[in-house]
Write a structure and sequence with these properties.
By secondary structure, the protein is mainly α. About 75% of the residues lie in helices and about 5% in strands. It has a two-stranded antiparallel ribbon.
Length: about 280
């Protein structure tokens, strides 16, 4: 099977599962995000190891997986450990590093790398759950559309960058990190995302979910989504460059790893959650 055929086959199988999990929300969505966070944390640990770091791999995987589940438990009213108990994880990990790494095993870098990985994967993915239950998501359809908004804009941003970069790209954007990206692609992605934001708000959010934005809000949101998507992609490229690998893993046929598929979303979804809280208005 060709790489393109593998991509299509995976998309056909994965998209309905993800869409259903977002629509039903609650435990199905939390479990899906937890699984993605665990796999992303494992890939992140491999990248970190490729740079010479020695993260506490299983701590990172387990804690990353727990973040979306904890958010779900909190929404259901269950008591979860407070910030003081969560803070105790740092001395706990330092204690583990003391016995498993020692002073020659770079214990500071080991713990710092692990903590960062938990937030980069599980922490950022948990915003998908938060966005599904955003204060403007008064019904499942509205919540689903709010999650879909940054996801679709991220995909359209990438498509715009590819089209304009291939057609007009000459000057490289950041060749030391991602040689294929150009300034023309970046500007094309920006324009595509702004126009797409307007179209989705005008023809989907307003008539279907009765939610809208002002023209200023549309421009702010479109610009933010485009910049976040491009920076998120570049950041993961930077991490892979440092680790000396092409893909974060080979878990997904034709796509590489989990982080290769969600790198931009780790930036766009959290920013969307914050901005939508300020920019959305109830449409008449």
């Amino acid at each position: 099977m060709s790489e393109f055929a593998k991509r299509i086959a995976f998309a056909v199988a994965a998209i309905p599962v993800v869409a259903a999990a977002v629509w039903f929300g609650d435990a199905p969505l939390a479990i899906l995000l937890s699984l993605a966070a665990a796999l992303g944390a494992w890939e992140y640990a491999r990248l970190a190891q490729g740079t010479g770091a020695r993260p506490l791999v299983w701590w990172g995987i387990v804690l990353s997986a727990l973040v979306p589940l904890a958010l779900h438990a909190l929404r259901l009213g269950f008591a979860i450990p407070g910030i003081a108990w969560i803070a105790l994880l740092v001395p706990a990990m330092l204690s583990v590093a003391l016995w498993t790494r020692g002073s020659d095993g770079k214990p500071i870098a080991s713990v710092a790398t692990t903590v960062f990985g938990v937030w980069y994967t599980g922490g950022m993915l948990a915003f998908v759950y938060a966005l599904r239950y955003h204060r403007f998501a008064i019904e499942p359809l509205a919540g689903t559309l709010l999650v879909a908004l940054p996801v679709v804009l991220t995909w359209l941003n990438d498509s715009g960058a590819f089209f304009f970069g291939k057609r007009f790209g000459k000057k490289k954007l950041m060749p030391s990190v991602s040689p294929g990206k150009t300034w023309a692609g970046a500007y094309g992605a920006l324009g595509t995302t702004i126009v797409s934001t307007w179209a989705i708000v005008e023809f989907v959010l307003v008539p279907v979910a009765h939610l809208g934005m002002t023209w200023t809000g549309i421009i702010i949101f479109g610009v933010a989504m485009s910049i976040a998507a491009q920076v998120g992609d570049l950041v993961e490229s930077m991490l892979k460059r440092e680790a000396g690998v092409k893909d974060s893993s080979a878990l997904i046929p034709g796509h590489g790893g989990v982080l290769d598929r969600i790198d931009s979303l780790l930036f766009t979804v959290p920013i969307a959650y914050v901005l939508l809280d300020m920019l959305l208005v109830v449409a008449a």
